[in-house]
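Reply to dn_fold:

You asked what the input looked like. This is it:
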Amino acid sequence: EQAELTAKFMLHYANSTARWNRQAYDKPVNALKFKIDRDTDGALRDQVYILGHFDLEKDQALVIDVNLSGAGYFIAPITNHWGTTNDIVHRTSCLNQAQSVANVDGTLTYVLSRHDPGVPNWLDPCDMRDGILTLRWAEFPDGGPSEALGATSRVVAMEDLRAALPEETPTVSERDRASRAEARASGYLRRLPEGLL
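and this is what came back:
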């Protein structure tokens, strides 16, 4: 009985994952315009999900501007086409609100690129040219988001990146990045010892 239930669950999980991710790939590339319908897609009722897929050349970056709309929690993970995260311990393939540097106006600006752009909020696709980006907002103080919630994205050439970012965006040196990576890994490994494997 248990084996049959497990097989049934695994098939359901695989089919749901494939359907969910296909929705991202069915939308225009490098755009974040697909909002998950919580009534039909099984998303948590008190959270908002916006997802899309990216496909970037080595000399391109995807700049993503996020309005938190009062959310107490936000996360931006990159996954492959199966919905599996990459190296979240040693690389910044996933950033949450606490790990991100906010703009002066309280918004967040991320840069998704295969090469380190030298900014704090770098989403590292772990050498993947394409994949899925799922943005998730949660913990709204008034029980739900305002109309301002959302994200916009635009592709820019790496050489033009600085001009496309908020003026206050700090620069992250190689030494800074290494220090941040060490602190990140230490934090994860306190609760995820399997990351040592």
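The mean pLDDT is 89.
Hope that clears it up.
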